Amino acid sequence: MLQKIITVLFLSGDALTKESIARILQVNAEEIDKHIEEIDTALRGIGLSLLQTELGLTIVTQPQQAATVKSFWEEELKGELTPAAIQVLTLVAYLGSPTREEISYIRGVQSSQSIRTLTVRGLIMRDGEKCMLTEDALKQLGVTKATLLPDYESINTSLSEKLKEREG
């Protein structure tokens, strides 16, 4: 159970309530509670910690890893956008305000890292689960609104249909 809980938290990239984790793992929330201390101990052994807030549980780096985290983000921010980040930026632009889960569904892979990178670079902003283009992103794309992007209507329709297939 320990490995499953950690896996769900890692894949999420965001805080999850104990109830959400329990639903995903098809157990009751008390089962998650039983493993909290064990999860934190396991994570501390590899430079991470379990953060518990009113939003839920999330995996974070330990303060002692600050220099490594800083180096990572400096490197991440100075280079070109990765193909994954460009895909995510494109989905946000053409879908308007997709959720992290919708982005990951369309891409077929977990997208939290790319979303985080784009947020840190100021290209997207988050409102809860929703991701939206920033004014800076629109400026860099050379448009005043996303609907002016090339083939906006057809791409938006195609992506929206893909999301509807999932629901149906």
Care to describe what's here?
- This protein has 168 residues and is mainly α.
- The chain folds into two domains: 2-64, Winged helix-like DNA-binding domain superfamily/Winged helix DNA-binding domain (Arc Repressor Mutant, subunit A); 80-167, Arc Repressor Mutant, subunit A (Orthogonal Bundle), CATH 1.10.10.
- Helices cover 60% and strands 12% of the residues.
- The protein is built from ten helices and four strands; from the N terminus they run H-H-H-H-E-E-H-H-H-H-E-E-H-H.
- The chain has helices at 2-12, 18-25, 29-34, 36-44, 66-78, 83-95, 100-107, 112-120, 135-141, 152-167, and strands at 48-53, 56-61, 124-127, 130-133.
- The strands form two sheets. Strands 1-2 form a two-stranded antiparallel ribbon. A two-stranded antiparallel ribbon has the order 3-4.
- A hairpin with a 2-residue loop joins strand 1 and strand 2 (56-61).
- Helix 6 (83-95) packs across helix 8.
- It is globular.
- It starts with a helix and ends with a helix.
Question: Outline of this structure?
Answer:
With 168 residues, this protein is mainly alpha-helical. It is 60% helix and 12% strand.
